[in-house]
Design a protein that fits this description.
It holds the Pfam family CP_ATPgrasp_2. Residues 71-448 form the Circularly permuted ATP-grasp type domain. Helices cover 30% and strands 22% of the residues. The chain is α+β, with helices and mostly antiparallel strands and 472 residues long. Among the domains are: 45-71 and 90-145 and 155-173 and 188-208 and 304-336 and 422-469, no CATH class; 344-404, Dna Ligase, domain 1. A hairpin with a 2-residue loop joins β8 (249-252) and β9 (255-258). The longest helix has 25 residues, at 76-100.
Length: 472
């Protein structure tokens, strides 16, 4: 891993374009004031109640995600490249999902192995041949982006099932505007607060044909014990829609209704934050008490839109990710704007041999993993951990991919010792509707707060930053 690219570029008195105002502000702001503002930000987040649970935490404690008060900045030209690449990638993802659940042309052409799809745990045969409104499977995508130099953005992974984190993007901006109004006044920063309006317009645009001219949208949550429940309730409130659990819904004559004080009301679009397995006990897990019996029958009948669609988890698979450049070319006839990280598929014998020979230099991930769990970061691992992981790889090579250890870019971050560089990634949110693609400028910047750490996930001790896209 080489020396990380510093996004502010503040070597000596130097500074990269876009960071000039921030650097002057940091140079003139006493550390005591930064510490005071950080404490005020933490107090605001505690009052708001923006917390998350860590699964497997014996204490079952709700935690506050650490927030860094120094924003991460992207210039307008940088965002222009990113947004074009994000739109291209989500178009290709939707075309891929529509294809594998219908004609399977990319499989017949030999660009993606059949078994990688049909043996995938997230492939849903119940979706085969099902025609969706506008052929859109992924209405809400969270594409994780990393940067290694001034010119190059890589896609680290695609989140096509139920991408989370947008509530932190919105709350981070609100807190920053309250704490640093003078800094905002000095430059034009693209707004993010219109995201709820954009999301609601997107969801309404994919309503079934049988819906009224003003479709009813509801958000389906597993309930208050889910780690992202804060976000579910936050978004339902911001969108002005009902937050429902499975017990609040019923299916009659293949139409979904929610219980209200005025009697049953039809639901046309369900923004579901519930995994496929638990959606409908008559189709998937019969022991699920979280879902809605008969929901899939209403879905097949074309009387409700589920967002995101059932079966999109195939596109989250990290082995499928490795084929995304071919997927973009196959469906769009274009070269990918955003690069993939070079990836070795351990299911292939030559790749497995290479990975085993270079394990101390690699990052190895489970193909169905998420949240920073189940992975090996070779340069940070001891000999025993590497040996144990080698045994796992040999036993189940199909379950893993490997990538080089990238020197993720760093952004100035206010830590206990003062201002220091910390590694960051970015999760922009791409909304694909029946009318157009909407991308709010920015996204959720996640930051690895531990010195030298490359793991930005909140469940692994990472924090978040506000992301500023300069609008000039």
């Amino acid at each position: 891993m080489g020396v990380a690219f510093d996004e502010m570029g503040a070597s000596g008195d130097g500074c990269r374009p876009g960071y000039e105002v921030l650097k002057r502000w940091l140079d003139s702001t006493p550390p005591d004031l930064l510490a005071t503002r950080r404490a005020e930000a933490e107090l605001l987040f505690r009052r708001i109640g923006i917390t998350f649970n860590v699964y497997g935490d014996d204490a079952g404690e709700e935690r506050l995600i650490p927030f860094d008060i120094i924003p991460r900045i992207l210039t307008k030209p940088e965002w222009s490249i990113l947004s074009r690449g994000l739109e291209q990638r989500t178009k290709a993802l939707n075309a891929f999902l529509a294809d594998i659940y219908s004609k399977g042309e990319i499989l017949r052409a030999g660009h993606v192995p059949d078994d990688l799809i049909y043996r995938n745990p997230y492939y849903r045969p119940e979706m085969a041949g099902l025609k969706l409104a506008h052929d859109i499977y992924v209405m809400i995508a969270g594409i994780d982006i990393v940067r290694v130099d001034p010119e190059t953005f890589y896609v680290l992974e695609d989140n096509a099932r139920t991408p989370s984190g947008v509530s932190y993007m919105l709350e981070n901006r609100e807190v920053m505007m309250r704490l640093f109004p003078d800094l905002f006044a000095e430059q034009r920063i693209a707004p993010v607060e219109n995201y709820p309006d954009a999301l609601l317009a997107t969801l309404k645009s994919v309503a079934p044909r049988s819906a009224s001219s003003d479709p009813t949208v509801a958000l389906l949550t597993p309930g208050p014990y889910n780690s992202a429940f804060y976000e579910h309730s936050f978004l339902a409130d911001k969108l002005g829609i009902e937050l429902v659990e499975g017990r609040d819904l019923q299916v009659r004559d293949n139409v979904v209704y929610m219980r209200t004080t005025e009697g049953p009301k039809r639901v046309d679009v369900l923004y579901r934050r519930l995994d496929d397995d638990f959606l409908d006990p008559l189709t998937f897990r019969p022991d699920s008490a979280l879902g809605v019996p008969g929901l899939m029958n209403a879905y097949r009948a074309g009387n409700i839109t589920l967002s995101n669609a059932v079966g999109t988890g195939v596109a989250d698979d990290k082995a499928v990710y490795s084929y995304m450049p071919e997927i973009v070319r196959f469906y769009l006839g274009e070269e990918p704007i955003l690069k993939n990280v070079p990836t070795w598929r351990c299911r292939e014998p030559d790749a497995l041999k290479y990975v085993l020979d270079h394990l101390p230099e690699m990052v190895v991930k489970e193909v169905a993993g998420s949240g920073g769990y189940g992975m090996l970061i070779g340069p940070a691992a001891d000999k025993k951990s590497i040996a144990d992981f080698a045994a796992k790889l040999k036993a189940n090579p199909d379950d893993f991919i490997a990538q080089p250890t990238l020197a993720l870019s760093t952004s100035p971050t206010f830590v206990e010792s003062g201002i220091a560089p910390r590694h960051v990634d970015l999760r922009p949110f791409v909304l694909t509707g029946g009318d157009k693609v909407r991308i709010v400028p920015g996204g959720l910047t996640r930051v690895a707060l531990k010195e030298g750490s490359l793991v930005v996930n909140s469940s692994q001790g990472g924090g978040t930053k506000d992301t500023w896209v300069l609008d000039a």
